[in-house]
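User: Some background: our group keeps a shared notebook of sequences we're curious about, and every so often someone picks one and asks for a predicted structure to add to the entry. Today it's my turn. The entry only has the sequence so far, pasted here. Could you supply the structure so I can complete it?
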Amino acid sequence: MLRKMLCLSGLLFATMPLFAAWPEKPVRVVVPFAAGGPADLTARLIAQKLSEQWKQPVVVDNRGGAGGNLGTVLAAQAPADGYTLLLTTSVFVCNPSLYKDTGYDPFRDFAPITLAGVSATVVSRHPSYVSVQTMQDILRESKAAPLPYASPGIGTAGHLAAELFRTITKANLQQVPYKGAGPAMTALLGGEVRLGFTAVPPVVALARSGKLVPIAVTSLKRIDVLPNVPAVAESYPGFEVDNMYGLLAPKKTPAALIRKINADTLAVLQAPDLRARFVQDAFEVRGNSPEEFEKYLRAEFTKWAKVVKESGVRVE
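Assistant: Of course. Here's the predicted structure to add to the notebook entry:
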């Protein structure tokens, strides 16, 4: 027993300097989406602060494709040494239900670090679409004929928010998926599609200039940047869709290193300038423990698996 304890103590002693010195080289944060989107911007804001704290470059590596699956698989297969992390969104727990084979398992292949924050989706319309002012109007119009709406792509928060609304109300909505938030907004502004389920930040400025009209937000309550826009839940109690932004590592990353990255990330999330920028982008900072984040991920996985099953949406 004594020999075993001495061996364990020696192992602990040997690993402590390693983690104390980490990182000794640049850290890569894989974002499984193209540059310029909300996940990319979130990752870059956090990476900049972590670079300052760790005294090492924290490099954002955009690896878009297959709805987020390609970059996620890349991160899952990286060495579990803390030098490759994944910053992803809700597609992380939705894609396994949408795709026949994502190439990864969210719980078998990854170690949760923290939920950085969440953001709502906004339902908005082209100014010419005057017959739709509320979510009830959307339901009414969709009963007469299939109602097309723009989304940033299959499996995105916008798509899933529309599918949840469809399963609750039986609205006849028809997704028009675009390759990202930018193309979806361009289509909506041009009147190619008159209704959209998209991220909040670009809609805020466009609403102020009268180029788009927000109808509702998918968070449980109204948000500060659009205080006069009702939550869908005000008409349909319990309706809530938050797009999460979370930080994870390959599964076998040592627990002590996960704890360090968690603590350092929570610290940078409290930086006043970072929080101010996030508020401006309608991003609600969260931050939690690895255990709390895993519990959150499992709950989201179960929720969206049910919605996907009921909606019948699948990606081949």
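Suggested note for the entry: Residues 1-6, 8-16 have pLDDT under 50 and may be disordered. DSSP finds eleven helices and ten strands in the chain.
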